[in-house]
Write a structure and sequence with these properties.
Elements (H helix, E strand, L loop, with lengths): L1 H4 L6 E2 L4 E4 L8 E4 L2 H16 L18 H14 L3 E5 L3 E5 L1
Antiparallel strand pairs: 1-2, 2-3, 4-5
Length: 100
């Protein structure tokens, strides 16, 4: 999740259809190929992002027009789980555990 929150606009390469991922905590950075549906989704998000009138480099922005922080994402996931009537325990080292 931290890698997604730290994503910057320059890491999306539309010409090569590649997403460059900078790993944190000594992990190996790598690239991921982008498919057509992913490219369309990214381009649609970038259109929405331009309406936010932010000139920063962060790919994902909060409502305050600042780079999205992982604690904000965790809170949103918890709230979505509650609204969906899912019991979700979120552990940062294992990912979400959903009890249905």
């Amino acid at each position: 999740m931290s890698e997604a929150c730290g994503l910057v606009l320059e890491l999306v390469d539309f010409e090569s259809r590649i997403l460059h991922v900078a790993r944190l905590k000594g992990g190996l950075s790598n690239t991921h190929p982008l498919r057509g549906d992913e490219i369309r989704a990214i381009k649609a998000w970038l259109v929405q992002r331009t309406h936010m009138k932010d000139r920063g480099r962060a790919f994902f922005l909060s409502e305050q027009r600042k780079p999205l922080h992982r604690s904000t994402v965790n809170l949103a996931l918890r709230q979505f789980g509650v609204k969906a009537n899912l019991e979700v325990d979120w552990f940062f080292w294992t990912g979400p555990i959903v009890n249905l």
